[in-house]
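Hi! If you just cloned this repository, the fastest way to understand the data is to look at a raw example. We've pasted two of them here, unedited. The first protein comes first, obviously.
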Amino acid sequence: MISLRTAIGKGALVVALTTGCDSTSGRETVVNLAITATTRAGGAPASFVTEDGWQVQLTEAAIAIGPVYLFENPPPLAQRLPWWRPDGWLLPMAHAHAGDQHFNGGAVLAEYVDQLRYDCLSGPASLGSTPATVGTARAFSLRLDPPRLKSGEVDLTHGHHAWVAGTATREGETIAFEGGLDIDAAGTLRRVDGLPTEAPLDEGGTFTLVVHPDAWLEGADFASLPASMEAGQPRRITASTQPGAVWFLGARGRQGYAGRYEPATP
């Protein structure tokens, strides 16, 4: 297999053009890339209810995300949910896994090799257009690296991989919270592999990376956050808190992301 990588624009978008693969035609095309955020149910990302009944209202939700890779192969069946889960045979898991595991995604049909600091509450954003290899992408992977802040750029994540702020209300109790997520560089913890999609890449279509902020805090017990040292200040989510541990898993799992493809309008 021989790959030819062609950079465009400022080097942010790169496509791997692959020969010798039966599953793609090898024909070059142009597709659009975009990013948006919703709840897993498809609603506005700022407001959702957790499984434990917390009504969450986000005022800030940002993440440093990228690169993103689109692969020809579906996620391997070995990455299933446990056998006792009824959906375990249908929805393969994404893994931010140890270094001894490998996601064999086959040919890379397209890549976004830059990093984007995305405000999840700001609505959809275009990432521009890029060359791509014609074929169906059935999986994608992404990286969650420390933010690389450019001169004059607003630090949406406050120096962390991701940042949230808002309130959580349950049974008459309202808790204000804020905090950042940091991911250690050990192994491949910053890589999330094997995310399922079905994207028949072709001329003028759009692949949209969908971020689900509600998955970050599913299972969080906001009442467990220690009180702020200063009166009137939000409680802090850190790695040592229960919501911080939940967030660490949620931001790196299959439920946190989706891929959506829309063909070009005739």
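Ok, and the second one:
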Amino acid sequence: MASALVAPLAAAQETSKPGATKAKSVFKAVEFNHIALDTPNRDQAIGFYESNFGMTNISHGRTVRDTFLHFEKGFMNLGEAEKAGLNHFCLGIQDFEPEVVFRMLSMLDLKPFKMGGNNLHIRDPDGLNVQIQEIGHGYQRVDSAQLTQAKKGLLETVSIHHLSLMVTDVKRSRDFYTEMFGLNVIKDEESKRCVLAVGRGFMELRKGPKAAMNHFCLACKNFNATELAAKLVEAGIDKVVGKETLVSLHDSSGLVIQVIAAN
């Protein structure tokens, strides 16, 4: 997949808007915009993230099938499904113009598809669903008062700090994300593990038998690892592990979450 990006890269960049700075990658991703999770019990998941992470359910007038839990710099999309897991994640890129981006992705034979409006998606080398949007997509439309007035959780989520993925070929995925999204390599352990910078956070790629989400990490205010671990255990949260600067736990669907202090 990575080698397939190199040949048409120069041609694809020529289609970007005049005056834009040309880079070695097709796009430049600077944020985790949102993460979409599948859950067998959406109502239970909504309550979990509202009460523990201070997320606010704002529908934007969409149908009841769409659940958007907002926080300061991003949001979480919850969908009902038989099995819990990652549905997709979204990267916010610089100079996002839907038709231009769609044309560039088509030129690279990445078979882009839309899921409503200008919500552009592609599949990575393992088939994981990656959405591509403008910086601030979704959450910048939310009035800050809607968030502050609704805060009621143990924590106040600020952003998605990092996402850890299991992939079948670390080098292949590393090359895809560096060449496509301009992510810089922070740490590369050959074929076992690679860490790529995404804005102020990062993406971790780990070798696994099949593609899946390993865990995701939320950056939160009001964070004290010792106190938080104790409160989560008291609240009956399963498998809480507290460290000096990090807390790991399972959500209501059994997905692994890490929590770290927001900068």
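That's it. A detail worth noticing about the second one: The chain has one domain: 2-10+28-261.
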